[in-house]
Design goal:
Rossmann fold, globular, 8 helices
Length: 260
């Protein structure tokens, strides 16, 4: 007798402790919920949206996994250190980081790069790199001890395919790509994998504020899959990267572009 299996799918992250930055909404929230659904204990970082973070925590706990909401400005080293220590105390040593938050300067009005000052560019690059390096520094001792550390940097397709008016974030994301590649080289001997996931345009509340409906429709028609990505698409790719199925993948920059 044959038929569809009635067994539950495997929980790919049982026994893991994950910290997701910028996890109160959008890509971060979808990622935190999915990883929690696969058995991970999840630290849900937020900056100002405590109620939204609590909703994500509630969903993860309802799926049977531990979770806690923890506030921190990811560009502030002291707050990041306290965040990691809080997650460690409540959930256990952090062996996996999903670095989704880019800092508050990530919200901007599109304009030509030539109209931006070097100081503006330097400030955005500085914040991007703080949001990447701070959590890695704070969690590295836990990762080394676990012997299976994993970092996924949620970057952007703009780092290699800039769009008009998006020069500031394109340069900042390219800098983050370079830092992640160096970290993969330096941390690999310690058992820590580092990869960048580079989505194209993703339909979120934030992107909707900057990209009008007609432009979003045009973008979808240009994608071979004929649709724009949604947060769950990014979350699924993160799940693959942090799972043991990607155990030999490090130093990569994976495009999530629907075929572009």
């Amino acid at each position: 007798m044959t038929g569809r299996s009635t067994t539950s799918p495997p929980r790919l992250l049982a026994g893991r402790t994950v910290l997701v930055t910028g996890a109160s909404r959008g890509i971060g929230a979808a990622t935190a919920r999915l990883l929690g659904g696969h058995g991970a204990a999840v630290g849900v970082n937020y900056h100002s949206s405590r109620a939204a973070a609590d909703e994500v925590v509630g969903a993860i706990r309802a799926a049977g996994s531990p979770a806690t909401a923890v506030r921190a400005d990811v560009a502030d080293a002291d707050e990041v250190q306290a965040m990691v220590e809080s997650v460690r105390a409540e959930l256990g040593p952090v062996d996996t980081l999903v670095l989704n938050a880019a800092g508050h300067k990530g919200a901007f009005a599109p304009r030509p790069l030539i109209e931006s000052t070097v100081s503006e560019l330097a400030a955005l690059v500085d914040e991007q790199l703080r949001a990447l390096l701070g959590p890695c520094r704070a969690a590295l001792p836990d990762m080394i001890e676990s012997e299976r550390g994993c970092v996924v940097v949620v970057g952007s397709g703009m780092s290699t395919q800039p769009q008009p008016g998006m020069g500031l974030p394109s340069v900042a994301k390219a800098a983050a790509d370079a830092v992640a590649r160096v970290l993969a080289l330096e941390l690999g001997p310690l058992g820590v994998r580092v990869n960048v996931l580079a989505p194209g345009f993703v339909e979120t509340d934030t992107s909707a504020r900057f990209v009008p409906p007609a432009a979003r429709e045009h973008l979808a028609k240009s994608v071979p899959l004929r649709r724009n990505a949604v947060p769950d698409d990014v979350a699924g790719a993160v799940l693959l990267l942090v799972s043991e199925y990607a155990g030999y993948l490090s130093g990569g920059r994976i495009r999530l572009s629907g075929g572009l």
